[in-house]
Amino acid sequence: xSSMTSIDINALDxxxxxxxQAAMDYANTALGWAQQTPESLILxxxxxxxxxxxxxxxxxxxxxxxxxxxxxxxxxxxxxxxYKEWCAFMAEPVARLGMRLVxxxxxxAPQHRFPAAYEDCLASLHHFYEHAAQFGADPSHIYLAGHSxxxxxxxxxxxxxxxxxxxxxxxxACLPISGILDLHHPDPAPGxxxxxxxxxxxxxxxDDAPMSPLSWGAGNTLPVLLSYGEHDTARVRLSNQxxxxxxxxxxxxxxxxxxxxxxxxxTHLSLRDSQAPWYERLARLAGSYSALPRRLQGSSVxxxxxx
Length: 307
Description:
By secondary structure, the chain is of the alpha/beta class. The protein has helices at residues 21-34, 91-96, 116-131, 149-159, 193-201, 234-247, 266-269, 277-288, and strands at 42-48, 56-60, 68-74, 100-104, 137-147, 171-177, 224-231, 254-263. The chain contains eight helices and eight strands. The protein has an eight-stranded mixed beta sheet, sandwiched between helices. The chain is globular, with a radius of gyration of 18 Å.
């Protein structure tokens, strides 16, 4: 695993500058770490799941292993920015868990407004399920996750997974990180991210309800492990707390974790460390839920560890 791959940052499709310095610092760090991805873990790059140039994904993992569970991890960027390469630094820690890592791109707003990004998540999930065997993956053991906008999309896809056209039980759990899980805002401030959701991301204002994971939790049977940072934005913290309260009333397991000392971007960058608590939770799920029949996984547990 000593050989490294070089990702040509200049080859990435250009995007408008990120709206804040912290976001730019995060992106530069993640892309820098992407260039340190061991060559031996790269199983496939730019696997097309649609005709649009943005509809592709990368696959990482141990090439000698077969029938491994898979983590599909969606990048953030406020639904208007982002690259799958922001998530490549997770390849080694995920491989250490005995899993495949899949990192999809999806179409971005404002050129492609919702539900385009959500439809791409469904399409990439379906495509990977159909082709999992060629990547040494077990299609019946898939875990969905993502950071920020990717966390929102991961949970929305997980709760509406029947629309992907694959068996519901093939998705074992969802672990969104720092996601905005409720897009509705009654009076967004000018120039805010909340206003951008209506001005740039949604096709119609009332789409904020069907595009919010909070609207789809009733009757949930999928284990969900929510997490956010102690210093995350107020909207992220509140939407995760509300989502957890709703899911705690449903049949499946729900956990809510606050990561001490971390802000919105550090919740993802902290996953460079294979010992991060988030990986411990994923390992427990991949170990226990793969071995148990789904009917035995129905206890609802809310573990609110928020700071």
